[in-house]
Amino acid sequence: MDAREPTRPDDLPATPFHVAIIMDGNGRWAKERGQIRTIGHKAGVDALKRTITAAVDLGVTHMTVFAFSTENWRRPEAEVSDLMGLLRAFIKADLARLRREGVCVRIIGQEDGLPRDIVGMVADAHEQTKHNSRFFLQVALNYGAQADIVEAARRLAQSARDGAITPESITADIFANSLSTHGLPPLDLLIRTSGEHRLSNFLLWEAAYAEFVFQDILWPDYGHDALKQALDIFARRNRRFGAVDPGHAAQPA
Ligand code: IPE
Ligand code: IPE
Ligand code: MG
């Protein structure tokens, strides 16, 4: 799933708004109900569908969601297999609707280790939706940020060895363009549900100036209201990007 072909839609609103979500808490949601973890993951897929609709309604233009990490292979085989099954079902049942609704879907992450049919399905999902520009949905599947950064470094090192670039010419922009997330606007807001306060190897480079919002809600309960609440918290934040607050800039020392 080499995502390095140009995929950036041209006619998005002038101010892109990029939100990433670590969709966490499916297992605990199921446990609270005396159910097996897979039931939580199933409810998690419904939450994702609700959240995509809510994001479009609330003016988000780009959304990156963490669906499966490179570390999630450590889970019991049956759970991993159920997660892959849910992904298959999601693509089969929802791709046509997403395409009709103007959603461009891109899946990032390592192909290695994924079932062959899923590799084909995710490539097809992108192919079928790549001309859409109303909303950009990036799904991180078998994704780990450190591996993505290492892969980018390898690509650039290879280019330098081939004489195509010089080491000195590598800038932060060029590096960012070598990551699987290339072409997306900077990440504005990173949300994690379920009360955990960590990145778990998600978007380490991209989150450089993102605002973080941690919500206690378990992912299967997520939807319009919870997303609205996160966006409201974001709206009250003062992003300085290393500069001083404009309100204080002119004051004498
Ligand atoms: C997130 O929910 C879904 C995936 C990681 C695939 P979890 O399965 O991590 O749920 P908890 O954290 O055990 O509650
Ligand atoms: C992160 O959640 C990965 C996804 C949401 C897909 P985890 O539940 O796997 O993260 P840890 O293990 O609590 O750090
Ligand atoms: Mg978890």
TrEMBL record:
Stated family: Belongs to the UPP synthase family.
Protein name stated in the entry: Isoprenyl transferase
HAMAP family cross-referenced by the UniProt entry: ISPT
EC numbers on record: 2.5.1.-
Transmembrane annotation, as ranges: none
Known function: Catalyzes the condensation of isopentenyl diphosphate (IPP) with allylic pyrophosphates generating different type of terpenoids.
Record-annotated active site: 24, 72
Keyword Magnesium: yes
InterPro entries assigned: UPP_synth-like, UPP_synth-like_CS, UPP_synth-like_sf
Organism: Asticcacaulis biprosthecium C19
The encoding gene: uppS
Binding site for substrate: 25-29, 37, 41, 69-71, 73, 75, 192, 198-200
Binding-site residues, Mg(2+): 24, 211
